[in-house]
Every structure is written in structure tokens, then in C-alpha cells.
Amino acid sequence: MKLKRASRAPQSETIIALIDVVFFLLVFFMLIGRMDATAPFDVAPPQAQTGRDMPAGGVTLAISKEGDLALDGSAIAPAALAAALTTQLALDASLRLRINAHRDADLRHVLPYVSQAEALGILDVILVVTPERTPPPGTRP
Known about the structure:
Blueprint: H1 16-32, E1 59-63, E2 69-71, E3 74-76, H2 78-91, E4 96-101, H3 107-120, E5 124-127
Parallel strand pairs: 1-4, 4-5
Antiparallel strand pairs: 1-2, 2-3
């Protein structure tokens, strides 16, 4: 009597182990790799300085939340700002420009004026900030 073996169907290859290896590699490279672009040279960001008095002299450009401008307390149109700064720069070659922007103003309202001042030849631009209040020792915030 011949006994017939039950024929085995060829097993399909499982890829579960391969998926595990791929996820392991993904996690490994995410942990050791840097996700941000790095510069090809050393970059040391500036340190914030608080507690110093604002330097005297120069002009102050105020920028509202909506982007309205005032130069030394007088409202000014954005188109007239360059001419006013050029006039001030002609009087004082080492003109200092303080930019006092509303805390909720978008950077798109502030940065163009920093670039404009640089293009006009104003080398000293100060961004006015309010330091964070720290509660006195022993009190709760």
C-alpha cells in the first residue's frame, strides 16, 4: 500500500521581517540624523541683551499691528519713508534707526524696513523689544 504524502502548497514568502527591518532603519536614522539643513560654516547666533539702556540719538520708526508707520511720532506713508530717512542721514552720517514694532505685527511689516535702511546706508538698526517680566523671588507667576 502506497501512502501518499499530502502535498504542501509552496509557502508564499513573508515580508513581515523585511518590514520590521525597514522600520528599524527608519527609526535609527531619524534618531541619529539631523533633520535641519546645516550651513557649511560655523554659525553662532547672537545673544539677546536685556537690562541695557537704549542708546540715545537717531530716529524711531514705529510700526503698528496693521503695518502703519510713524517716524519720530509723526505718521508717514511707506513711500515717503525713504526720502525722510535720506534727509536724516544727510544731517547725520552715523544715523541710528530704532524700529519699535507692535508685538503682534507680522514680520512682513518689519523686515522690509530693515533692508531699506541698510540700502540707504544706515548701519545701526536697533529692534526695540520688551524684556520678559520675571516675578519677584518668592511669588507665584
